[in-house]
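Morning. Coffee machine broken again, so started the prediction first thing and wrote up yesterday's gels while waiting. Chain of 712 residues, entered below exactly as on the submission form.
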Amino acid sequence: MKDEGTLDVLNRLRMDVSALGVHELDHGLGDLEGRVLPYATFPVLAANVSGSDALSAEGDGRGISIKEVDGVRVGFIGVVTDELPKLVSSSTRAQLTVAPAVSTANARAAELKDGDPDNGEADVVVVLSHEDAASTATGFSKNVDAVVAGRSHVSYAQTVTGVEGNQIAVVQPDHYGLKLGMIRLNYDRDTKKVSVINVENQDLRQEYCHEDDFDGINIFSYKRYNKMMDLGAAQPVAQLGTDYLRGSDGVTPGAHTGTESTAADLVAESYRYWLADIDPMERPPASAHYVGVVRADDLKADFRYKSTGNYHGEVPADQVDGLFTVDEVRNVSPDDKAMGYLTMTGAELKALIAQQWRPGADPAAVQLGLSANVDVIADAAAQTEDGAAPSIREVRVDGQVLEDADTVVVASTQELLTGGAGFTLPNGSGVVNVGSLGRDITTNYLASFNQQILKPSYAKRQVGMSAVPKPGRAGTVTATMDSLAYTHSTEQVLGARRVRAVSGDKEFFSQNIDLTVDRTGPTTGKASFDLAVPADAPTGACRSAEATTCRWVTLESVDGVGRVLNSFYVEVPADAKPIATPSAAPSPGAPSSTPSAEPSEVATVTTSASLGAQPAPSATAGSGVASDGQAVASPGGGGDGSAAPVGVGGLPAATSGAGNAAPEDRGGDGRPAGGTGGWSLARTGTSLGAGVIALTLIAGGYLILRRRRQVD
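Came back before lunch.
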């Protein structure tokens, strides 16, 4: 619709002033200068952007607009996000220079209050900031009296203390006009001091300030919105059994985009489904791996079980909960970005995933939602070190360890694939666009299940994992795990709650997972402990080292009712004797605060989470080389193992001893057999990535990690 409906309403509202955002540049700088700015009857300010004479001339120039109200001069300063260069096309990026938003606003505010009329003067200064309120509000100076923020789509209304101890009214009124942000200030004409009276958000879906809506409804209903309503916005497309939520700070979904979320993974899976559903003439080769990827902050709402949409009376009130409509999908992906796909190598996909971590940046992590056939293991030890980005130990796609030379077809937004979303990708010019839009893809995917109840699996797709032999204690390993849990409290109740060890059919160790939410990164859900493999543990052929016979136990993460979500195997050479044999008495299924293993053999648990299910590779026993290319030391039983390298590998489900995973019945084109267009992830609540991951401790002990399919 070329923004015309939005601009028509804002013009009719007699908007005084606005600030530049990212999407004003979606069609390039020429479109902004030649169409958007002339169309708008209000100035669009960008004090921290240079390179466009037309943009710099808006308002009173240099990103400033001054309006006099009852003899009081109110100065507005507009700034756009520091990340603008990452979020626009390369051609626009080359034309514009972006300075830091907060420091630029502070500099302009100082000029407006320095008493020099040559650079403009104002009694009250309001910053219009295209940045998230919570992350930037306290950085403004004493010359800033109020901030109207907006980017993260998270509602915010507070009086905060600025960098110089000053009080600043800050409002971020949700998004798309759903709320009206209101700031009330007091200006004392005698002392020339500004004070905050109050700041609030009014929900315009419940409160209406005017009987006259400035004809806005007519503009949208008749000029634009009828086209969208013809698509049946109120039509239910899916039956949800529970919520699929975005990353949370522990309370608010959407407040944390640096962690894995069930909502983002669901959208990414819909992108993979789309690749298999494209017209055969335009579809990429069936021989390649298909992968869906979505940037977490592309999602602006959650997939909610409780009704949030307007059903226009088409669905009885008592049948609304659980139904997810076309309109609600639009709320999840309101930007409706153009889709594309890009063929890349396994090495390039690994490099893309590694860019989730951004040490020293704010935010320090930007998570990618991944389709259900992708599983990642990162180095958990590195994630706990200040300023360090973890290495990617292993990526599996469709049950196979992804080699650097393998071919992968990645489906995502064209914005991400062409480097406009802060991720660097190779060969952006190779992106194929077949005319599809993101939320249409997600809508079609959900509709393919024909109202079958959809529930997420709470096993993780991205997991942090590291392990080392315990020095001086043969047969004992120290395991560090993170990213085992989701971040919202309701999903933590349903997800992993504890880690347990099982020898044969008896549980001998149990410890709660630390569910403390990491608000800056993906590591929520941590566990760290020493584990001694009992002398009477089952034995069998060693799976990944130059030893003949090994003892092994199963290590599992389980939910509150004892259902296994992730399974791991600890394996040591049979001649590595433990100091003591722990009791094999079974323990109850509920989370336990004390392990049932002998205390001298077990350390305390810390926690963290972020990676996912790993499909089964072939065993490499006796090869002498770990799957990451490191040399494998011949295991002794008595060495301390302190210098032993840690490798990553896999183990076939049939030899793991964890039970049989359900087969993955896919057709040759990567779709489920039968060609229904549905994937078993959403139908059953299980992960398509079911299979095996191995973390191998070379010399002294071996830790094998296996991801088992959840059965609902």
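The longest helix spans residues 262-277. Going to sketch it on the whiteboard this afternoon.
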